[in-house]
Amino acid sequence: MTSFVQLLQDSQPFFIFLCGLLGLLVGSFLNVVIHRLPKMMEREWRAQCAEMNEQVSTGAVQESSKPAHTYNLQTPRSACPNCGHQITALENIPVISYLVLRGKCRQCGSAISMRYPIVEVVSGVLSAYAAWHFGFGLAAAAAIIFIWALIALTFIDFDTQLLPDDITLPLLWLGIILNLFGIFTTLSNSIVGAIAGYLVLWSVYWLFKLVTGKEGMGYGDFKLLAAIGAWLGWSLLPLVIMLSSVVGAVVGITLIIVARHGRNIPIPFGPYLAGGALIALFWGEQLTQSYLHLLTP
Fold first, then answer.
1. CA gap 56, 59 in Å, rounded
2. How much is the pTM?
3. To bridge 134 with a disulfide, which of 66, 140, 198, 266 should be the other Cys (CB 3.0-4.6 Å)?
């Protein structure tokens, strides 16, 4: 074990390769999280609503409120949504299986979404880049975990406009814990970043609601920016907000003009927060210094 750790420390190419490979494998699991976690949340909400309405007192409703079978991140096994064919281990090799199967189910020939290999490739590439950027150590391991969480949150928000507390809240606390050791910033900056991240969007939410009478964003966005602040510190929050706002505005206007996306149809903000956080994670200090240099006479 000691010799293997030494190999990772001494050989940067091997460390990068291993992190990239691990990212591919975890990317396959992230696909499961992206697909199943919202469904698990929905089932839990339905059960809670049934209990709150005291409908579980009758046998018929009680039976309907219970899940027909166990459904979590492990059970049941992944299967084709069209024919129910259970995916074997050989059919679940990241990217390779998709290419071998030519993007189709082996049993019925129905198309497999490009989403799956995209998530795997993005996870693998970003994990490898984090390994190269930070080098062997705790910072690289932490950055990779941060990246995985942001990938899951991005695609869940795209699909459902939800940012699950099951990911955002542990991410927030993990950022504070890691910064006890000064991994990305000081502990005080981390705590202030978490507080400021939440309050900034909370204030925008209520200001927008008072002016328009509508909700401009969800509470999950507050928690995600709080988590980002806990990881990167308060000083990088302006950069994250600026980047995410600019990209979000450009994408939103493009959707309205090109894709005729209705103005009243909400656009998830979480993916843009995640994108801004990734840019700040890798290049935040350089971008901030460059910006301040331009402002300095």
1. 7
2. 0.89
3. 140
The span from the CA of 145 to the CA of 183, in Å, is 13
DSSP of 13-41, one letter per residue? HHHHHHHHHHHHHHHHHHHHHHHHHHHHH
Listed residue (154, 151, 198, 148) closest to 172, CA to CA: 198
Q: DSSP characters for 29-88?
A: HHHHHHHHHHHHHHHHHHHHHHHHTTGGGSHHHHHHHS-SS--SSSSS--B-TTT-PBPP
Kindly write down the DSSP assignment for every residue of 250-286, as one continuous string. Answer: HHHHHHHHTS---TTS---SHHHHHHHHHHHHHHHHH
Q: Length of the chain, please?
A: 297
Tell me how far apart the alpha carbons of residues 27 and 117 are, in angstroms, rounded to a whole number: 8
Between the alpha carbon of residue 82 and those of residues 99, 108, 109, 234, the distances in Å are 19, 8, 9, 47
The pLDDT tens digits along the chain (297 residues) read 678 888 888 889 999 999 999 999 999 999 999 999 999 998 888 878 877 776 556 554 444 445 557 888 888 888 877 887 888 888 888 999 888 888 888 888 888 889 999 999 999 999 999 999 999 999 999 999 999 999 999 999 999 999 999 999 999 999 999 999 999 999 999 999 999 999 999 998 888 888 888 777 788 999 999 999 999 999 999 999 999 988 877 777 776 676 565 556 667 889 999 999 999 999 998 888 877 666 666
CB 34 within 8 A of CB 119: yes
**Pick from 16, 5, 38, 18: nearest CA to 163:** 38
252 burial (CB, 10 Å; 0-12 / 13-18 / 19+) is middle
Residue type, 211: V
Residue 291 tokens read as 């910006």
